[in-house]
Structures are given as C-alpha cells and as structure tokens.
C-alpha cells in the first residue's frame, strides 16, 4: 500500500540515498522506483511473521524494527534491532523460503517494499547492486560471529555493556528496551540484567526509567564492555 503524499520522485530520492542503489543511473533508479511501494506503519505493527512466504524485500526509511524468532516452547528470542538505511526480509527473498523470523515495528515506521520476483530480475540486470547486498550480508555475518564470540568469552557485565552499545549504534543514544530483552540479547538472566543496569545507573553510565535507556557516559560504557576489573561475577551464564 503506497503511503499518502509519497510520489515516484520521493521514492526515487529515498532509493538514491540508500547505499546499495546510489550508483545506479537515473533510468534504472526510476524503473526501480516505479516498482517500489511505500508503506507507513504505526508502532507495534507486524511486518511479517516467521514462516510467512517472502513476497517483499524491505528497506527501512524511517523508524525502528525488532526481529524475533520463536522457540518450540513459544519463547521469543531477539535476533536484531534494525533502523533507517537497513534491509529486512532479504534472506528469505533470496533463497525463496519462508521468513526465518518475525519483524515488528517499535516506532512509527516508513518502509519501501519491492516484490521478490521483480527484484531478483533487477539484480540479474544490475549485478553491482547484488555485490553491494553481498557486502551488507557479509557485515551481518561478521557481526553475528562477534556476538557469538562475546557470548562465549565475555562476562555478563561485559556482554550487557556491549549489547547496550550495539543498540545505541542502531537506535541512537536513547532507546526503549526491556530488561528481559537485554538479558535475551546478552545471553544472561533477567535478574543479572536488572542488577547490571542498576549498577550502570548508579555509576552515571546510563539513565534508565520505564524501559527507556539513555547513555550518559559512552566512554565508561565502552570500558565496561572491554573489561570488568575488580568485580565479582555472578555464577551464571
């Protein structure tokens, strides 16, 4: 569904600002814009569900999205938080299998959507775009490897600090997240996440209230993510 007050020129301009498309010549960019839908969604709206068929390749223009995966017991695990300039739904679109996770808006969000069949044919005609997407996917894999390394080798406080830093890179210096979500992303318990957030707040590293976190001293937070000298670590994973 095309959002109100959005015309082809606006979509063309939005696509041009997106790095994987900004080397396209004007006719190719305009052709892509003609096949691109723009949708404005309220906070809390589902974009797609895990196991849905992959009809669309999405580009985030404005807003924040949470990507989650459910276990067999129904527990929700956070895969990623995504913001403007990022793509979502790409893996399923490329391998033509159901979406491996669900995506929901956290704030009012503006998305560009390109139908899978057209986008695949467009990539055949413009392989330079495919190469840029490969670069984006490679960065994600590298980030995932680093996250796994942190989960295995770092202490709980380090992992929580690294999680908050990662979220601030994507969502800004102030963002909303629950203690349970921090614990899930950092691979620790909710109780440990609560204790650590309280500790960071007392040390002036962050401000925290009603699920909103604001980073007050980024240098201290970076230091907490690198090492925790002289602190006794709780015996949990």
Contiguous runs where pLDDT drops below 50 for at least 5 residues: 228-237
Mean pLDDT: 87
State the CATH topology of the largest domain: Jelly Rolls
Supply the CATH class of the largest domain: Mainly Beta
Count of domains: 2
Radius of gyration, rounded?
A: 20 Å
Structural class: alpha+beta
Q: How much of the residues is beta strand, in percent?
A: 15-25%
The CATH architecture of the largest domain can be given as: Sandwich
- Tell me the number of strands: 11
Biggest sheet architecture: 4 strands, antiparallel
- Straight-line distance between termini: 45 Å
Q: Work out the helicity level.
A: 40-55%
Structure description:
The longest helix has 27 residues, at 127-153. This protein folds into 2 domains: 8-147, Jelly Rolls (Sandwich), CATH 2.60.120.10; 155-226, Winged helix-like DNA-binding domain superfamily/Winged helix DNA-binding domain (Arc Repressor Mutant, subunit A), CATH 1.10.10. Strand 10 and strand 11 (212-215) form a beta hairpin. With 237 residues, the protein is α+β, with helices and mostly antiparallel strands. The protein is 46% helix and 22% strand. The chain has helices at 8-17, 26-34, 90-95, 116-125, 127-153, 156-171, 179-186, 190-202, 218-226; strands at residues 36-41, 46-48, 56-62, 65-70, 76-82, 87-88, 102-105, 109-115, 174-176, 206-209, 212-215. The strands form 3 sheets. The protein has a 4-stranded antiparallel sheet. Strands 2-7-4-5 form a 4-stranded antiparallel sheet. It has a 3-stranded antiparallel sheet with strand order 9-11-10. The N and C termini lie far apart (45 Å). It contains 9 helices and 11 strands.
């Amino acid at each position: 569904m095309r959002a109100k007050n959005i015309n082809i020129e606006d979509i063309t301009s939005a696509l041009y600002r997106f790095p994987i498309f900004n080397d396209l010549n004007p006719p190719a960019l305009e052709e892509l814009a003609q096949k691109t839908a723009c949708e404005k969604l309220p906070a809390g709206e589902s974009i797609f569900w895990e196991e849905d068929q992959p009809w669309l390749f999405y580009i985030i223009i404005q807003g924040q999205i949470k990507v989650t995966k459910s276990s067999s017991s129904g527990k929700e695990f956070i895969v990623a938080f995504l913001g403007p300039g990022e793509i979502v739904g790409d893996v399923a679109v490329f391998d033509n299998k159901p979406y491996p996770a669900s995506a929901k808006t956290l704030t009012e969000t503006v998305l560009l959507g390109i139908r899978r069949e057209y986008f695949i044919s467009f990539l055949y005609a413009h392989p330079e775009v495919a190469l840029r997407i490969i670069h984006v996917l490679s960065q994600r894999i590298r980030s995932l490897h680093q996250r796994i390394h942190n989960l295995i080798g770092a202490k709980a406080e380090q992992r929580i600090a690294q999680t908050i830093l990662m979220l601030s890179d994507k969502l800004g210096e102030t963002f909303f997240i629950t203690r349970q979500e921090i614990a899930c992303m950092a691979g620790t318990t909710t109780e440990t996440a609560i204790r650590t957030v309280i500790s960071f707040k007392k040390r002036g590293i962050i401000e925290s209230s009603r699920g909103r976190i604001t980073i007050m001293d980024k240098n201290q937070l970076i230091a907490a993510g690198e090492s925790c000298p002289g602190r006794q670590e709780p015996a949990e994973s």
